[in-house]
Structure formats: structure tokens, C-alpha cells
Amino acid sequence: MTACDANRVADRDIWRRPAPLGVGLPYLPDLDAALYTSGLIDFVEITPDILCRPRYGAPGMVLDMGLLETARDVCGGLPIVVHGVELSIGSAGRWNDHYVAMLETFQQEWPFAWHSEHLHFQTIDMDDGCGERDIGVPLPLPFTQAAAATVANRTRRLNAAFGVPFLLENGAHYLGRLPRSDGIRDEAHFLNRIAETGDCGFLLDLHNLHCNAVNNGDDAAGLIDALRLDRVGEIHIAGGRWSDGFRLDSHDGRTPQPVWALLDDVLPRCPHVGGVVFEIMADHARRLGPAAIVEELGRLRAIWTRHKAVAKADPCLA
Amino acid sequence: MPRLSDYQRALADAVRHGGEDRPVPPGLSVSGLALTRRVRHSWCMGRVRRAAPLTLAILTEDDREEIVAEWVARGGGTSSFFETEAEAFLTFVSRRLDRPSHASSLCRFERAVIRARGASTMRRLIRPASIDSMVQRSPHADLVELHAPVEQLLEALAKTRRWPAICEGSHRLLVAPGIAGLVRDASPVEIALWHAAERPVPAKDYWPAARSLVACGALETVAGVDGC
């Protein structure tokens, strides 16, 4: 048994790798539906929260079957992955149990290849008897053992509940140097610890890395070097804009050159990546227009094809 | 390093409550925290504006900005579900509006439509009314009084005419999840039944209107109560 065979066996037991799908696009209800069946994309990334309504007379959310059927029609039989926004997996008190329950129903209705969430917290229990309440904006976790353990415990529960790979997305923030302790040196170390103890993978968002490099002085290349790239199951690219000297993670435009460069660097080093997605917000997709989106997808396709062809030739990466 | 819950509370507090007097959690960027506050504030304002477009359209620009800003300052604008945000915001706004006024009635109308539309998407078991049953108002329905004909209100909203004078008691709309389009004019007997059904009433006293209002989700049968 070669070294790369041994690594494969060890990893197979602890982390179910995503199947290779290719180039993806988020499901955006207002986008021209023809884009999804044009052959430009191989899979669709669904945020199930946008197919939900609040549960009347009780807390929580329920799937709107009408919205779900519309989405299914638009996607035209393409494979899907889930990218959630409501879980708040890092909240010290409770995560969003209602999201988990909704996702179980969603999976029964429309199975997905893998699912992902953002590594942050967006609800807080202020000990005022009201329970968890929305903060209104996602916030980053400190790089501590307590935060890593909180998230890892939950990712293991997600693995048991859903039986498909679960990926955590590295976040963008504007807060400078985040607190760290317990020997956790940096973001890569923090992410690796969660993945190893929580049996999950990463959704590596390259625009978020770029934002943190610009805004907080983080070393994007250094993070990539230190991250367990064998755990990267999906990659996001996106655009953003500038405000008061900060780079905003606003998903409102085309992918900037530094993010394309990061993709070119990191993609061939991620042996188990299942897909790359151009992320854009619904409002901005309308403004950007289908022609620009098609160009972004074409460039993404070219990079994906080039690196996957190289990977096929390498027995350790194939 | 503080406990995770303490760290999160301190950070959330610093982001939710702007102002120079608020302490910044140790080590974090002051300018970055200020930007995070602005991003949050902008998101919250956007959620509120999307949640109640009809009611906000009737207010003057100054009133609109003031009322949205006050709501966000009180902690509103954080729900990602627009129905949840709309329910809470419109309840808040309704207490601020003069009565009777077009703003007040359109606010109530918008809230009623959002409730009914939400309920219309849910799979719910409707127990049909029998003549012996008791019936009461459904929480997903409302009877809304407009103070002018709908056409005149729409023209005023479109700024093609001045707001009509307040005219009480003549334009009552039934809003319920089972009505096609969610809204229709209410008949005099339906108006009387709606008012009576604030508490359970015998269906036979308003038959057959009680049967039709239960069928369209405006009323519900009361479980376990015998009307005889």
C-alpha cells in the first residue's frame, strides 16, 4: 500500500468526500431559468431558507412546497447541494433546531449531494428569558478550544442526521485580529481542529479570504498553505465592493483578479473538491445580467477543466 | 479569554448598540466594529423596507425614515423572514398611526394580507362547520375597513390623485387564506358574524354565512364545544 492509498483509507472512515460535480451556481428565483439548463453549470447550490416561510402559531420555519416545486422545475434535474444561512452553528447557547428539522424535510423531498453552512454565530441568548434572538448580522467566532468544540459537536450531529458530507465555510469579517487561545494559532489551525474533531470538510470561500487579507491583514496564501486542503469539498468565488477603505463581502459583482489567482493556486491542491460556485446575490444578479454571469461561469469552467484534467493524471489526486 | 457565551454577548452588544460610549471588546478593530455596525444597520433597514412596502408608501418620507429608524433602534429588522418582520413592524407602526386614517387602515390591510398569504401556503386541516357547531374568528383572517373606495386609494398611492376624504363604515374587506386572491368585499351578514365571532358563537345563528366563512378560512370551528 502506497502512502497516498493509506491516506485515502484513513480519510474515508472519518469524512465522506463530496462526489465531483463541477461548476455550480446558486439558485436565484428571479434569474432567467434558461441559465440553469444551458449546459453551463453542472449543479445548483440551493439555500433552502429562501424556500421557507415562518411557521404560523409556533416558532420555526416550514418549507413552502410551492416554492420548492418551482425551484425543482428551474433546476431541471441537475444535482443540488445545500448552502444554509440560518443554522448559526457557532452560537454558544443553541443552534437553530428549526433549521435542522426543516432540512430533514427538505432532504426527503429533494436529496442533496452535500450541505454547508457559514462558520459564525448570528443569534444570541441575552439571558433575558427571550431565548436566542437574531443579531441581524453574522459575527465571527474566537479561535478557542471552546468554540471549536461547540462547532465540532454539532457537525458530528449533522453527519449522523443527514449522512452526506457537511462543509463549513470560512467567514469574512472586519474586526481585525480575532481573540485566540488554547494554543490555537490562527484561522487555519482553528478550522483544521474543527474538521478533524468534527469529521467535516470545508467550503473554502476565496473572496472571504481576500476580504480578510485586505481588511484585517490576514495572510491568505499562508492560510491556504496551513489549511487541510484534503478537506476542501467546495470552493466559492464572488465579487464585492469597497466602502470606507474596507472590502465588503457583498456578492454584488464580478470576481476580482486576486480571487481568480487564489483559485488557480488552490484548486489543483484540493484533491477531493466536488465543485466550484460563482456566488452572487439575487438583486445583484439581475443588475449584473446573464451575459456577465455566463462569462464568469465560462472562466470558472476553464479553470475547473484544466485542473481536473491534471488531477486525473495524478494517481494520488484522481 | 472570556467564556464563549460572554465573548459572544459582548460582541453582539457592541455591534447592536452603536455609540462611542460603548466599550469595544479587547483587541478588535474600532473602525472595523464601526463598519460592522453600519452593515448591520443597513441590513436591518433593508429588511424593514421590504417587509411593509404598502404602509411605508403612504407615509411621508420624513415619517418613513423616522419610524423605520426607531424600529431598528428598538431591535427590529433582524428577522430574515419578511413575514415575521412585517408582522412585528406593522404591529409597532399601527400603534403610531392616527385613527381613523388611510395609513391606519392600509397598515391593517397589509398585515392581514401577509397573515392570510402565509396561512394559505400551509397544509391545514379545515374542519367544516355543521349547523350545530360553534365558530370563532381565525387568527389568519381579518375584516378591514377602508375609508374610501379601493380604486381611489390605489390612485392616491400611485400619486395620480389626492388622498380622498375619510369616509367611515362603507368599505369593508374580508381577508382570509381561502379566498381567491385573499381579499373580497364582505356582505352585511358576514360583517355582523365577524363582529359576533370575536368569541365562539353558534353557527346556526348565522347559517349559511358561518359555513362559507369557515370554508374560506375566515372563521374556525371550535373544537369540543357543542353549540346546542
TrEMBL record, chain A:
Q: Which InterPro entries match?
A: MbnB/TglH/ChrH, Xyl_isomerase-like_sf
Q: Where are the transmembrane segments?
A: none
- Taxonomic superkingdom: Bacteria
Record protein name field: DUF692 domain-containing protein
Provide the species name.
Rhizorhabdus histidinilytica
Q: What is the lineage of its organism?
A: Bacteria, Pseudomonadati, Pseudomonadota, Alphaproteobacteria, Sphingomonadales
UniProtKB/TrEMBL annotation, chain B:
Q: Which domain of life is it from?
A: Bacteria
Q: What is this protein called?
A: Uncharacterized protein
The major lineage groups are: Bacteria, Pseudomonadati, Pseudomonadota, Alphaproteobacteria, Sphingomonadales
